[in-house]
Specification:
Main location: membrane
Oligomer: single chain
Keywords: Antibiotic resistance, ATP-binding, Nucleotide-binding, Transport
InterPro entries: AAA+_ATPase, ABC_transporter-like_ATP-bd, ABC_transporter-like_CS, ABC_transporter_ATP-binding, P-loop_NTPase
Domain ABC transporter: 7-230
Organism: Arthrobacter russicus
Strand content: 25-35%
Distance between the termini: 24 Å
Bound molecules: adenosine-5'-triphosphate
Order of helices and strands: EEEHEEEHHHEHEHEEHEEEHEH
Largest sheet: 6 strands, mixed
Number of helices: 9
Length: 294
Amino acid sequence: MSREPMASWESVSKKYRGVPALTEFSLALGPGVHCLLGPNGAGKSTALGILTGVRAASRGTVQVLGKTVVRGGPQTRWLGSVPQSLSFPATLTAREVLGFVAMHYPDPVPLGRIVTELGLQAFLEKHCGGLSGGQRRRLGIACAVIANAPVLILDEPLAGLDIEGRAAVRHLILAQRSAGRCIIMASHDYAEVESTADTVTLVKDGVRLASGSTDSVRGTLALSHVVFNAPEAPAGVTPLGALQRLDDGRFRLTTRYPDQAARILLQALDRPRLQINPSSLEEAVGELLLEPQR
Ligand SMILES: Nc1ncnc2c1ncn2[C@@H]1O[C@H](COP(=O)(O)OP(=O)(O)OP(=O)(O)O)[C@@H](O)[C@H]1O
């Protein structure tokens, strides 16, 4: 990356009561949408919490816009964030919470704009104690975005949202990206990640396993699906990958050797009606997580 990163972790480690949650984690991110992926307990929220200054690293440095993050330090004004678990004071209304958050930032987004963009009208005057899970999530995202900060941290932004809420959040994330912001999120929603993320970073057991553009991570294992018509699968393709009979009577071979499989199928079968498709990000990540750590 030629420009200064907007957010970075440098050899960050974190232990909770002596148990490692993040180990020598390094990553530097610029403008764009960046997603941390990994199984439950991988260390994603820990990494994000350290970046926001809410959690302290046991070792290493985190920086936002070139300044080292310290708990409660000035960098908090350059960050808008929504944590994974949301709790708001039960007796405050959504409007009051947003007003309170906005007052901590030098140039907050006008309330009316946030309300419209995230569809908050229906519960703006409601007490937070009476909000549904999805409403709390929308309010949390609104609290992050109202900061109008260059770096936006979203931990599981889509959890519990309905279709309309997901569309609103996706739209908002893409608008933030167009504005040159650095959006960092943790997610288990692969479809959403594929449609919004520029880069993905795979974390497992507190260690960064892979990082790069969404396409490059998807292509790391170069897995493909070869779908074909056949009464029975030719023996020559079975050693090339995992073979599955589909509901429509066709076969699907998941393989790293699609060209070799295609050659065998074209020779062995009369009209195989071959289709070759790259694997999804979710499948590639699943395979990467199964591999022994490199
Ligand atoms: N406050 C804490 N005290 C003790 N251990 C913790 C604490 N927070 C997290 N951990 C542990 O640290 C590890 C990483 O947790 P973390 O919440 O960062 O994972 P995650 O990747 O965000 O998981 P998920 O996808 O489930 O949200 C886990 O083993 C978790 O049990």
